[in-house]
Amino acid sequence: MGLCCSKNVSAVKNDGITPATHFKPPSSSPPTERPVETPSSTDCNPFAASPFQSPLPAGVPPSPSEAGTPGRKFRWPLPPPSPAKPIMAIMRRRGQTKPPKEVPIPEDGEGGEGERQLDKSFGYANNFPAKFELGREVGRGHFGYTCWAMGKRGELRGQPVAVKIISKAKMTTAISIEDVRREIKIMKALSGHKHMIKFHDAFEDANNVYMVMELCEGGELLDRILSRGGRYTEEDAKSIVVQILSVVAFCHLQGVVHRDLKPENFLFTTRDDDAPMKIIDFGLSDFIRPDQRLNDIVGSAYYVAPEVLHRSYSVEADMWSIGVITYILLCGSRPFWAQTESGIFHSVLRADPNFDDSPWPVVSAEAKAFVKRLLSKDHRKRMTAAQALTHPWLRDENRPVPLDILIYKSVKSYVRATPLKRAKIKALSKAIPEDEFFYLKAQFSLLEPKDGFLSLNSFKAVLTRHFTDAMKESRVIDIFNVVRFLDLSYG
Q: Which of 60, 224, 234, 358 has the fewest CB atoms within 10 Å, i.e. the most exposed one?
C-alpha cells in the first residue's frame, strides 16, 4: 500500500493543567506552542509596532516554519501491535524528533517535474492588500500564522478581523493543497452557528492563502481554566460544556468531524466572564458519510480517542475529546497522563480515569456519570452530542435539543433489519430508561409528526431545513437511499 504525507498528532505540551493524581508528572516539559488558528489579540494598537505596509507586518517571515504543511497520516495494510509505535515513527518522519534530510522541491521556473504538476491556484480573489491592512502576528504553528488586521474597504471596512496566512511554498503535495481547500470549504459551510467562528472570505496571491475570520479577543478556554486555578464549579462547567455540545452536534449533523477538540480550540468573544465561546481550527477536520469509518491518526495526544489509535473511528471520537475537556473542567487534572506521548497513548488505551481522589468525592453523581459515559472506551456506549444535552446533568426543559443524525441512522438500520430483529427492537423499546425516553421524545417532536405518525417526507423535510454545502460533501442525504417507505408511530 502506498504511503502519503501525514498530519501531525500534536506534541505533548506543558499547558499548566495538573496531571491526574494516579500518574507521575514529568519533571520538565517543552514550552507550550500557541495554536495557529487563535484569532485573538490583547494589543489595543496592533499597528503601533508595525511601520511596514501590507501584506506582511514587521517581524513576520513569509514562511511560517521549516516543516511543510502536514497532510494525512501514513496508512498501514494491517493494524500494528501497538498504535503508539507507528505514531512515533510518523513523528520522526515529520521532524518532531531527529529531522530527516529533506530534498527541496524546486520552485517555479527551476524545473522539477513534480512541482510543475501541482496546481496551487485555488480560485480565490487576489485583492487582499486592497481590502485589508495587516497588523501584528497573534498566533503561529504548523499550518501557518494568524495576524490582526483591519478592513480597508467593503463590508468589513473599519472592522478588526483575524487573518490566517498559509504559505503556498509549504504546500509540497497535492494532499496538502487539498487539506487547505477542505478547511476553507468546511468553514464556509458551517459559518452560521452562534458558537462557530465566523468565516468572512478567502484570498490568495502567488505566495500565500489568506483566510479572513471573526476576531475573538477573549482568549482561549485553556487560559480561563488556568486563571481559575485549574477548576470550574459545576454550574460554570455546565455552561461551557453546553456550548461545546451545541456546536459539535451541529457539525456532526452536517457530516463534519472536528478531530482536534481541546480547550485551546475554543475562544471567548470578549473578556467578559459570561462571553460566549467560538470553536476554531478546522485544519484536521474532515467530511464523513453517515456509515463511514476514518483511519487517519490525527488529533492531540491528551484528547485522542482509543478508536483513533486503532484507526477505525467516526464522530464518536469527538465525544471522547469532550469527555476529556469536561473531566479537566471539573477537577483540573487530565484523565490520562504519562511522561511521553507514547505513554499517553498507552494510558488512553488501557488506563481508567481517576474518580476517587479530590475533588471527585464532592462532585455530583450526575456529573461523574456524564463524564464516564463520554470516556467509555467502547465508542458504541458513548452519547452523541444531542444525547449528552439531554443527560440529567445538563437537562433543561427550556433549552431546545438539536436534531441528531443518529435518529436517521437508527431508522435506516430498522428498515434494513430482519422481521425477527424488528420484533426484538419493539420488545426492548418497552424497557427504555427515562433518560433515553426524554431524548427520543425530543427527537420525535423535531421530526414534526402528524397525528402521531412520521413519514419519509417528514424525515426528508426536516433534514433539508438543516442542509448546508457540508451535507453535500459528506453525502448525508444519501441516508435516504435505502428508505423507500416509512411510517412510524409514537406512543
A: 358
